[in-house]
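Case study B.
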Amino acid sequence: MNDERVPLKEEAVETKEITLSMGPQHPSTHGVLHLVLDIKGEKVLKADPDIGYLHRGTEKIAENLFYPQFVPYTDRLDYMCAMSNNLAYVAAVEKLLGIEITERAKYIRVVAAELSRIAGHLVCIGAWGVDIGAMSVLLYAFRERELILDLFEMLCGARMTLSYLRVGGVRYDVTPEFKKKCLEFTKILPKRIGEYERLLTGNRIWLERNKGIGALSGEEAIELGLTGPNLRASGVNWDLRKDEPYLVYDRMDFTVPVGSNGDCFDRYTVRIEEMRQALRIIEQALKDMPEGPFNIDTPLIVPPLKQDVYENMEALIHHFKYYSQSFKVPKGEFYSVVEAPKGELGFYVISDGSEKPFRVKIRVPSFANLYAIDRLSRGGYLADVVAVVSSLDPVFGECDK
Amino acid sequence: MTPEMELLLVNNIKDRFGSSIIQTTVQFGEVAHTVKKDALLDICRYLKTDPSLRMNFLMDVAGVDFYPEKPRFTVVYHLLSLITKLRLRLKVRIEDGEKVPSLTALWKSADWPEREAYDMFGIVFEGHPDLRRIYMPFDWDGFPLRKDYPLRGYKDRYNPYGEEKK
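Model:
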C-alpha cells in the first residue's frame, strides 16, 4: 500500500501564530487597556498588557503640591470609588501629623467608603455584563448607582470626584436627611441585588462564559500579587477590614465572602456578596454614629467653615493662611493601607518636614491585579480574555496613575 | 506593636543579619531595615521561608530619589505575610547607575513594580526577566520621577511648555 493518503483536515488548514492588538479603543477593555495577544487560531498563547495611556504622573504632581491640595488628585485614581482613595491618603497624612480624628468622623468615613465600594462593584458587574453580552444588567446597575451618586451629592455636592474626606476629618457633616435617605437605600438595594442575581447567577450563558474560566489557586494568586475580591475568590480569606482593622471596622459585624475555585464566576459571587455585607456595615455605622464634631479642633490643619469666612474677619485670615501656606508635616514615613473595592490600596508617604510631601508612592490594586492577566488568559480562548479582564475589574485612572 | 512582634521583626533579624543591616527604624509601629545590597536576596529568602515570618506577599517596590544626597536612590520593598499578619519594610540605598538584584525569582509580583521603578527612576534590576518601560513610551528620554526632571517635562515638538534641556 502506498502512502498517498488524503491529508487530514487539520493538516490541510494550517494555523499560523499571529499577534493581535486588542484595545486601546476596544469597547470591552474598560477604558484604555491595550493587550498585545499572541494567538494561534482562537487560543491565546500569551497576553502582554501595554498600559500607560492614562499616565498623568500623579506621584510627580504630589511632590509639588501642599498636603491638602493633593486630595482631589486621589479622586481621579479610581474614579469609581473616590472615597476609598481619599481615605487612604488622608489616613497617611494624619498618621504623620500624629492626629486622631473624632469618633463621628470615623463613622462617617466608614459609611462613605462602603457606599463607594457598592458603587464600584455595581459598575464592575454592569460593565462585565455588557462585555459578555448581558446588556440589561448595566442599565439596572447604573440605576442603583445613581441612587448612591445622589447620596454623595447630598453629602458633599459632588457626584464622582468627591474630595469629601480631608486631613482632620470630613468636609461637611452628615445631615439627618442624608441618614434617612441612606437607610432607605439600604432597604432598596438588597431587592435589586436579587434582581441582578436572577438575571445572571442562574443564567446559562453567564455560567458558560464564567464558570471555570481564568481559574487561579490561592497560592498562585498570592504569588502574582492579587488583592481584594480577586484574591478572596481564590479562597484566601484576607480582608484588611478584618485582618488589620482601621477606623471602626472592628466594631462592625460583617462576614468576608470567600470563593473556592478562583474562576471568573467566583469573582462575581464574591462581589455580589460583598455588596450585601457593605450594606450591613452602613446600617450599623448609621445606627451607632455618635453626635459631636466631624473635624478635629486644630485650626492649623482644618480650614474654617465657608459661612464664617464670609462673615468673620478672623475666619477670613485663617482661610487665606490655610490655603496659601498650608501646614508642615513632621519628618517621617508611613505606609497606610485600606481595603479599596479593587484590593489593597496603599499610600507610602515620605515627609521631609515641609508643607509638601517628599515622595508619595501609591500602591494601586488595579495595577497589581492586571499583572495576573497573562497567567489567567494563557491557554484559553480569545473570547475568554474579555471575561477575565472584566472579572479583574481594572480601572485605568488608577492603574496608570 | 506588641513586644513579640518587635522581637521577631527587629531583634531576630538584627541578630541573624547584623553585619548586613545598616539602619533600623521603628516608626508608627512599622519596622524598616536598611540593608546592604549584596545581602538583600539572602534576607528576602529568609523572610519568605522562615516559619515564624512567612512573608509570602511582596506588596510593592518603590523607588525614592534623594538627589543631590549620596547615595542617590533608595529602593523600598513592602513585605506582608498573610499568615502571620506581619508587615516589614526593606530599603536598599544605591548610587546612580548601580544595579539592584531583582526579587522576581522569589515573588512574581515584583515584576511590574520593578519595571515601574525602572521606568520612573532608571533603577536597573539585575536578573529581571523583562525589564522595559511600563508607563512611558518605549522611546521616552529621561526618567520622570527623578528630582532633577522638570515637572512639565522637557521642551520638544509635542510639549511647547516644557523646560529647555541643558
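Residues 36 and 81 of chain B are 22 Å apart (CA to CA). The remaining cases will be described in the next quarterly update.
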